[in-house]
């Protein structure tokens, strides 16, 4: 938790420099509190860096494709010169991401994580998949992660302005 706190402080300090007046000075503390509520419910002082990274990626303002590729990079395992994501790693990613809607009472059960993992590997004979297959599956908007593209679309539309007038 202390290491993550330091990284968040540095991250938000840089963001404040890039966007003066747009970043709350308490952003690092708020983010750490959210991560602790999601990944350290028993107060052990330990949060897996990979879990925290998954949450920060999911909640970032980056494009969906960039998020999906980042998920792959954090959860894939090297196999020779390639990186692949295994069923186990996918389950771990889905469980970590499921903690975000769960914090507001909208998470799903472990069975829906397993169903999603099976759907990703449907028709795959190997025990792991390449990035393109993983990203393609995420682009199909699996139900367990439907909140990610939905939040992205909501944030993207918040920036839209038009000159139409209502009567």
UniProtKB/TrEMBL annotation:
Domain EF-hand: 65-154
An individual GO BP term: synaptic signaling
InterPro entries: EF-hand-dom_pair, EF-hand_dom_typ2, KCMF1/Dystrophin
GO cellular component: plasma membrane; synapse
Source organism, top-level taxon: Eukaryota
Pfam families xrefs: EF-hand_3
Name this polypeptide is given: DYTN protein
């Amino acid at each position: 938790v202390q290491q993550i706190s330091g990284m968040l402080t540095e991250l938000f300090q840089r963001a404040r420099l890039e966007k003066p007046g747009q970043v709350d000075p308490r952003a690092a503390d708020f983010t750490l509190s959210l991560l602790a509520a999601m990944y350290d419910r028993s107060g052990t002082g330990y949060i897996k860096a990979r879990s925290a990274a998954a949450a920060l990626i999911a909640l970032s303002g980056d494009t969906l494709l960039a998020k999906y590729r980042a998920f792959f990079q954090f959860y894939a395992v090297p196999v020779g010169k390639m990186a692949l994501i295994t069923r186990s790693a996918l389950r771990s990613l889905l469980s970590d991401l499921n903690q975000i809607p769960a914090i507001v009472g909208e998470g799903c059960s472990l069975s829906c994580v397993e169903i999603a993992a099976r759907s990703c590997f449907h028709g795959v004979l190997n025990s792991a998949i390449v990035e393109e297959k993983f990203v393609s599956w995420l682009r199909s908007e699996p139900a367990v992660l439907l909140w990610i593209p939905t939040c992205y679309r909501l944030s993207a539309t918040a920036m839209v302005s038009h000159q139409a007038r209502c009567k």
